[in-house]
Each structure stands twice: as C-alpha cells, then as structure tokens.
From TrEMBL:
Substrate binds at N9, F10, K11, I146, G180, A201, S202. GO terms for cellular component: cytosol. It is found in: Cytoplasm. This is Triosephosphate isomerase. GO terms for biological process: gluconeogenesis; glyceraldehyde-3-phosphate biosynthetic process; glycerol catabolic process; glycolytic process. Keywords: Cytoplasm, Gluconeogenesis, Glycolysis, Isomerase. GO terms for molecular function: triose-phosphate isomerase activity. Pathway: Carbohydrate biosynthesis; gluconeogenesis; Carbohydrate degradation; glycolysis; D-glyceraldehyde 3-phosphate from glycerone phosphate: step 1/1. Belongs to the triosephosphate isomerase family. InterPro entries: Aldolase_TIM, TIM_sf, Triosephosphate_isomerase, Triosephosphate_isomerase_arc. SUPFAM superfamilies: Triosephosphate isomerase (TIM).
C-alpha cells in the first residue's frame, strides 16, 4: 500500500457483478494505468476470482469471516479469498460489522497468508484502538454520510482531522477517509486534512460516466499529494 490509497468499494450495486462488474473493473484499471496510480477494487466475493484474472489492479474482498477451515456454512475465509486471487480485504465495514474477537482472528490469519487488511471504523475514536491490531490501513467513515452524496470532507472535516491525530499514535498504519465522497474537491480536502487516501462507492458505482468521475477523484488525489 502506498499513498494515495484509493479504494472503490463495489458493494452490491447493479454495476458490481456480472458483465457490468467486469466493465466497471476495466474502466478503473484503465484510469489506474493512465494516471500511474493504484486503484484497489473491493468486490463481491463471487467476483473475486473472475476479476483477479481479468484485471491487473488489486482486488479485495469486502469482508472475511474470522472462522477457521472446517464446518462453517456460508463462511468466506481468508484462505478462500487468497485462493481466489484477492490481495486483501476490507474488514468491519459499517454495513458488515465483525465482532472484535473475530476481527482479531481474521486479521492474524490474513497476515499469515500475506493478505492486506483495511479495517473500517465509524468514528475517529476507534482509529487508534483498531490501528493497534496493525492492519495496513484504517478507513474512517461516518455511517450517516455513506451513500448520501454529502462528503465527510465537507460535512464533518473534524472527523478526518481527529482521525489523523489518532493514527499518529500507532506506527506504520495508514489512515483513509470516506463517506459521501463525490467530487474531486472532496478528495482534495480529505488528503489536505492529512488522510492517506480515500474510499468511495456510490459516486462511482452509480455514475452515468464512471470513468469521468474516477478520473476527477484520482487526479485531485494526486494534486493534493503533490502539494503535501
Ligand atoms: O462505504 C463507503 C466505502 O466503503 C463509502 O460509500 P459512499 O462513497 O457511497 O458514501
């Protein structure tokens, strides 16, 4: 992982699976190559294997279960996603929360397998405690702004500033900001406030022209990083 860290979370949008999911991944790959900037895609579990074979950008799962191999119906394990070709996973997204003990188990197993982890938190107060588990990054997203079209940078910039202060208490863990990120200006402000990147979903996944949207976001991330 290297800033600017850019994560496009496919969630379960119409454009997240099948032919449209593949088209979306190809668009993001194209922009990644054109801008020489890594774009991580976090995709439905059923799409990991396909997309990992079709695109060169890193593919993440959206969630893994902390359970070991064995009798766990419906589980998606770190071993499953590794085998499918994932580079890592989001963990504890506010739409897919994980119990603390399971999170710790999952993280340890992910590390053992050489997988990257991004732990999501819904408030800045959890940034340092989660950072102590030593994921690659912590992604802070106020849930009320997720999918709202109103960005954390605009509506709650203090969440980013406080989260940046919190991440300084742990070493070698990046801080990413997200929720409602819509415009290049949202990204620019988030990075200028000290975040190492951004997470986005609806603005890209629901866009008429996703290429134009992601281009704007990525170019503003680069501009903000250059000015740091
Ligand atoms: O949850 C998010 C990314 O993980 C953010 O979602 P939106 O970009 O739709 O607000």
């Amino acid at each position: 992982m290297k800033p600017p860290i850019i994560i496009v979370n496919f969630k379960a949008y119409e454009t997240s699976y099948g032919k449209r999911g593949l088209e979306m991944a190809k668009i993001l790959e194209k922009v990644s190559i054109e801008t020489s900037t890594e774009i991580i895609i976090s995709v439905p579990a059923t799409m990991i294997s396909r997309l990992a074979q079709e695109v060169t950008i890193p593919v993440y799962a959206q969630h893994v279960d902390g359970v070991s191999e064995g009798a766990h119906t419906g589980a998606v394990t770190p071993e499953h996603i590794k085998d499918a070709g994932a580079r890592g996973s989001l963990l504890n997204h506010s739409e897919k929360r994980v119990r603390m003990d399971e999170l710790d188990d999952a993280l340890k197993r992910m590390k053992k397998l050489g997988l990257e982890s991004v732990i999501c938190v819904d408030r800045y107060e959890l940034v340092a405690p989660m950072g102590l588990l030593k994921p690659g990054a912590v992604l802070v997203e106020p849930p009320e702004l997720i999918g709202s079209g109103v960005s954390v940078s605009k509506a709650r910039p203090e969440v980013i500033t406080n989260a940046v202060n919190e991440i300084r208490k742990v070493e070698d863990v990046y801080l990413i900001a997200g929720a409602g990120i819509t415009t290049g200006e949202d990204v620019y402000v988030a990075i200028k406030l000290g975040s190492d990147g951004f997470g986005v979903a609806s603005a890209v996944m629901k866009a008429k022209d996703p290429q134009k949207v992601i281009q704007d976001l990525v170019l503003n991330a680069i501009r903000a990083m250059e000015e740091k």
